[in-house]
């Protein structure tokens, strides 16, 4: 098994230095584009509601991710609570909005990673990690010292701070961001993030610079690279064409994408009339046709290859 690059960063002491720099960011929190400026080390909380410790809802081997992420043995997912986006249609709102979970020290988080590796998981997959980046880096330094070597997956909502993403260079092996919206009005209405597209596209460009195209080994398992997810929303609210054209023209036509159809009106979605229903087959097929038309040929559509 090839060691992930963070192993060398740990051995040189650079991972520990990165962890210290990241921790400093909690004192006046600007880990995401919300720029709340609260002192989370002193117990203050911002939009995401996260505090000084990472809070974990669950961790397990997960077999429902894209094929090269789950592989045969599963992806070692660690589901983190709270979220910097708080989308009104979130299917995991008890975790992301209500914070249902248990606080975890860096040592405990490191123990989870090592346990998932012992179970044979192909990677450690942090789900909704943006607001816990410093805690994760500190825990990873401990886990690397304990023998962790498998790739790190950064499974995020796309609303990222460039400073935070840059700090992760050489630490994260596989970036798996969403690209949710391309227009301001839906981003405001559904996530209170008018600048979502601006920040998501900048972050995704930086992620691609760091890790490049998705690399899959001879066993069909992803070892490094970028995989972008796009959830089709009712009535075209995701603005799919602009996002897909950005990927093809500004990132690479070889980028792996996952076009998802599982939207349903969870949480408070029904408060927005156009979001109070599932998408139609025609709406999903329209986006799939866009993918072909724009020239993106790598990735997955649900119900297909």
Descriptive terms for the model:
305 residues, 11 helices, ten-stranded mixed beta sheet, TIM Barrel, alpha/beta, 10 strands
Protein described:
The protein is of the alpha/beta class and 305 residues long. The chain has a single domain (6-301), classed as Alpha-Beta Barrel (TIM Barrel), CATH 3.20.20. Helix content is 35%, strand content 17%. It has helices spanning 6-12, 14-24, 67-70, 93-96, 106-118, 133-145, 162-167, 184-191, 196-211, 240-251, 281-294; strands spanning 54-62, 75-80, 102-104, 124-127, 152-156, 174-177, 215-216, 222-231, 256-260, 298-301. Strands 1, 2, 3, 4, 5, 6, 7, 8, 9 and 10 form a ten-stranded mixed sheet that branches. Helix 1 crosses helix 6 (133-145), helix 5 crosses helix 6 (133-145) and helix 10 packs parallel to helix 11. It is globular. The two termini are 27 Å apart. The mean pLDDT is 97.
Largest sheet: 10 strands, mixed
Q: CATH top level?
A: Alpha Beta
Q: Structural class from helices and strands?
A: alpha/beta
Q: Which value, in Å, is the CA radius of gyration?
A: 18 Å
How many separate domains? 1
Per DSSP, the total helix count is 11
CATH superfamily label: Aldolase class I
Low-confidence parts, pLDDT < 50 over ≥5 residues? none
The helix content is 25-40%
Tally of DSSP β-strands: 10
Q: Quaternary state, please?
A: single chain
For the terminal residues, how far apart are their CA atoms? 27 Å
- Roughly what fraction of the amino acids lie in strands? 15-25%
Mean pLDDT: 97
The topology string of helices and strands comes to HHEHEHEHEHEHEHHEEHEHE
Shape annotation: globular
CATH architecture classification? Alpha-Beta Barrel
CATH topology: TIM Barrel
């Amino acid at each position: 098994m090839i060691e992930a690059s963070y192993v060398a960063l740990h051995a040189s002491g650079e991972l520990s230095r990165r962890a210290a720099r990241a921790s400093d960011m909690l004192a006046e929190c600007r880990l995401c584009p919300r720029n709340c400026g609260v002192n989370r080390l002193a117990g203050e909380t911002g939009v995401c509601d996260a505090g000084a410790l990472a809070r974990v809802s669950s961790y397990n081997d997960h077999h429902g991710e894209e094929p090269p992420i789950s592989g045969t043995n599963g992806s070692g997912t660690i589901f983190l609570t709270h979220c910097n986006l708080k989308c009104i249609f979130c299917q995991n709102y008890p975790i992301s909005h209500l914070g249902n979970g248990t606080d975890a020290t860096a040592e405990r988080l490191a123990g989870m990673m090592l346990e998932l590796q012992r179970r044979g998981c192909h990677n450690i997959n942090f789900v909704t990690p943006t607001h816990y980046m410093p805690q994760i880096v500190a825990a990873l330094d401990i886990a690397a010292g304990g023998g962790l070597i498998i790739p790190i997956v950064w499974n995020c909502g796309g609303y990222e701070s460039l400073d935070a993403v840059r700090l992760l260079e050489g630490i994260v092996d596989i970036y798996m961001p969403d690209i949710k919206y391309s227009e301001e009005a839906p981003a405001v209405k559904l996530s209170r993030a008018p600048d979502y597209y601006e920040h998501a596209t900048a972050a995704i460009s930086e992620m691609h610079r760091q890790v490049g195209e998705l690399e899959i080994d001879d066993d069909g398992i992803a070892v490094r690279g970028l995989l972008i997810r796009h959830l089709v929303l009712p009535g075209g609210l995701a603005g799919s064409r602009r996002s897909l054209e950005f990927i093809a023209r500004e990132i690479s036509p070889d980028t792996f994408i996952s076009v998802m159809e599982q939207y349903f009106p969870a949480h408070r979605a029904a408060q927005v009339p156009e979001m109070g229903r599932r998408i139609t087959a025609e709406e999903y097929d329209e986006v799939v046709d866009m993918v072909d038309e724009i020239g993106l040929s790598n990735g997955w559509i649900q119900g297909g290859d």
